[in-house]
Amino acid sequence: MNVIVCVKQIPDPALPGALDSSSNTLKRDGKLILDESDSYGVEMALQLVTAAGGGEVSLVSMAPNGEVSGLRTALAMGAAKAILVSDPALKGSDALTTAKVLAAAVQRLGGADLIIGATESSDGYTGTVPEQIAEILGLPSVTFAKKVTIDGSTMHIERQTEQGYDEVTSPLPALISVTAGVVEPRYPSFKGIMAAKSKPLETVTAADLGITPVGWDGAGQTIVNVSQAEARKAGEVIEDDGETFTKVVSYLENLKLI
Amino acid sequence: MDSYVAPLDDIISALRTVGLDEILTLPAFEGIDRATVADVLGGFAKLAGEVIAPSDRIGDAVGAMLDTTTGDVTVAPEIATAYARYSEGGWTALSASAEFGGGGFPGLVAAANREMFGSANLALSLNPVLTQSAIELLERWADERQRSVFLARLIDGTWTGTMNLTEPDAGSDLGAVRTTATPIGGDPANATRYAITGTKIFITWGEHSMTENIIHLVLARLPGAPEGTRGISLFIVPKFNLDDAGALLERNGVHCLALEHKLGIHASPTCVLQFTDAIGELVGSVNGGMEAMFSMMNPARLAIGLQGVSVGERALQQSSAFAHERRQGRSKDTTSGASLIAEHPDVKRMLLDMAVTVDASRLLVYLAVAAADVANNHPDAEERARSQRRMELLTPLAKAWPTDEGVRVASLGVQIHGGMGFIEETGIAQRYRDARITPIYEGTNGIQAIDLVGRKIARDNGLAVNELLDEISVTIERADGIAELSNAAKSLSEAVHQCRAAVTWIVEQFANSADAVLAGATVFLDLVATTVAGSLLIKQAADHVEDGSPDATMRVARAEFFAFDRLTRLPSLQSITLGNELLTAGLR
Ligand SMILES: Cc1cc2nc3c(=O)[nH]c(=O)nc-3n(C[C@H](O)[C@H](O)[C@H](O)COP(=O)(O)OP(=O)(O)OC[C@H]3O[C@@H](n4cnc5c(N)ncnc54)[C@H](O)[C@@H]3O)c2cc1C
């Protein structure tokens, strides 16, 4: 079983980010790292391949400045090879262009039994790229996957919903987007990091993939305005008078959590 | 606030200043480049910050527990999980030899990882430190069969190692060791098995159940062995006996009788180990135990010196976070409300003192480890010998100064927290408690100072130390040519003069008035270590200035701070030479 994971390399969320005021987009010119959201997909892919008893995990990523450190992290976790699409012309690409580029990269790898993306990335997101890739590739797609088992050419998915989960069955090949936190991503081992050094990593341009126009020219959308996120409201303090638990219970009931 | 993020920029900068690039050009490290080193450090930093560091607080609170009926020792499950992730990741192997599954990396890179481990959890980090010592000792002294049985599993982390030197009457003076080894069949030289009997105390990680076996390295005396250190041999005593293929057999006769209640490093079990006819095998030669132990003493001492860096770094991170949250008083930059205490000049000074001291300590230990790498791997024999001298000279400096300073830095951390610093809740108190052991074990800092003046200075008539001081003169010249660093260079130049005067006095006096020299040994160590550390900070700043690095301004400020604050108030020659009689006369 072969799995391809679409991984994004993003500015380190631990460092303060900045917007490019001319384009209203996030500055991505510093060092980038593997988006934590994607580490779940990589882990799930590695687990599925192990469970299937064979095959390999490959990666596709689109990032500026030939950045590979996030890909190296995923290779160190155990992925076998990667394609990076890096091209100054891609600056300003919207979600659909990104999907076209990643879909072409998937095809360059010869496709796979399963394509995995994250539900959404952590830096700037629309939450639509995985489904657009599925549409371009003509594959069934299942969103919010939290548990996946493969049975021959059929995939069983537990799909997270607000109330609980749906049980979905899909034929393979297919695409899923996985929610954060559903598996525990492994830490790259010393051996894994060393092995990642010699794993195949091909860097291509949009033109190599035959995708034009891209970047601002290809974008069907513009960002007209950005505004400050609303500040978080102060929490409510409840004095413990010995009966506080009833207040907590009714608070949770109000939120329809219990 | 209690979190730890590995200071990779500081670490990588320090590695460069002490010569990582030159070490990577040695044939032994072919195929390892700067980028690979950065990847390895980055990978370990993640584990240290996300898995090991969160086990630190709970490990301190839970401590180690002995079940007196079974003799089993347990620690907080978080500690065991952190160890499991570390060993699964293959990190023990980093610098071990490739022949037994090691990664063949320079010790300098392993030291950087070890620093991070120590910051993340000092108590747990002792376990790999001791295992690493056991690995290095066996790589050097064990015979082929022993190496094949023990090394691979110590290197892959499935077993851990311990060092059993100390006994109730044998601490700083190991010549007093009384544990006995009796040959089982055959004469002492030809026996393959020995029965070991005696009591060892203070044995770190001497018992635990995180791994399936523990390999104890034990100093003991054979029948009829000469008195003192010349009559001590070294034995491997596994917790579970092994068959010829290395498979586990029954429990050996070594048991934990008690655990010590300690000021700090609570998660590290400090055991009283009773050996009762425990089966052991000899490593190295009959009565060659001290020689074998000495070969791992230098690396082990450097590992403990590094703990001063580790604990200081964690204290710094905690204190800086606290100072950026706690509001009190009003600084001149604030117009209304209370300001962050980080804005008060006096608090800023404490924070900078901590940061610069950690940097200086890191550079000093890394420099010694770099010398060891060259001494062990350089193709040229003369260069190996020179680096060996350098490493041996630097070892007492790099063990004692960073650990003494680590205690001071942790204490400053407590101070920055104000009253909350004295309250366990904030976690900074743990740094102070944990730091306090580091100047004591692995040879007290007093013993380091004696080693410095006797073996490392008087014995070679100051050759190694003068070589080092000559090299510092090169740094002075270089810094003198960089406008921003020329004032710092002046302070350094005066410090070097003071060192030379003190060295001359020691070389002259040692043979006839050793006591006078010993009376000033600790102060002399402080003088030389501070000077070397200062020279390294200045060299580091020069590296950044010449590179046009974005950190250049900060590095220059740090070098200047150390030069003006520390290099200008070094122990005077008068303090070093005041003599033993004065000490006697002054005590009641
Ligand atoms: C938490 C902990 C963990 C330890 N782990 C281990 C371990 O894993 N394995 C192991 O074998 N040991 C271990 N030790 C023992 C440790 O190495 C010794 O405690 C240390 O070497 C000092 O020996 P001592 O306690 O007997 O002190 P002493 O030797 O009694 O020293 C007391 C004081 O006298 C000074 N002094 C002693 N002799 C001289 C001298 N000749 N000249 C000048 N000053 C002198 C010392 O500097 C010190 O200040 C551990 C100790 C502790 C507390």
Polypeptide structure, described:
The complex is a heterodimer of chains A (258) and B (588). By secondary structure, chain A is α/β, with parallel strands linked by helices. Chain A is 28% helix and 25% strand. Chain A is built from 7 helices and 13 strands. Chain A has a 9-stranded mixed sheet, with helices on both faces. In chain A, a hairpin with a 4-residue loop joins strand 10 (154-160) and strand 11 (165-171). In chain A, helix 2 packs across helix 5 (190-196) and helix 3 packs across helix 4. In chain A, 38% of the residues are buried. The model of chain B has no long low-confidence stretch (mean pLDDT 96). In chain B, 53% of the residues are buried. In chain B, the strands form 3 sheets. In chain B, strands 3, 4, 5, 6, 7, 10 and 11 form a 7-stranded mixed sheet that branches. In chain B, strands 1-2 form a two-stranded antiparallel ribbon. In chain B, strands 8-9 form a two-stranded antiparallel ribbon. Chain B folds into 3 domains: 8-155, Butyryl-Coa Dehydrogenase, subunit A, domain 1, CATH 1.10.540.10; 160-287, Butyryl-CoA Dehydrogenase, subunit A, domain 2, CATH 2.40.110; 444-588, Four Helix Bundle (Hemerythrin (Met), subunit A) (Up-down Bundle). The interface between A and B is medium-sized, with 14 and 18 residues. The structure holds flavin-adenine dinucleotide. Flavin-adenine dinucleotide binds at residues 163-166, 171-172, 202-204, 262, 270, 437, 440-444, 446-447, 450 of chain B.
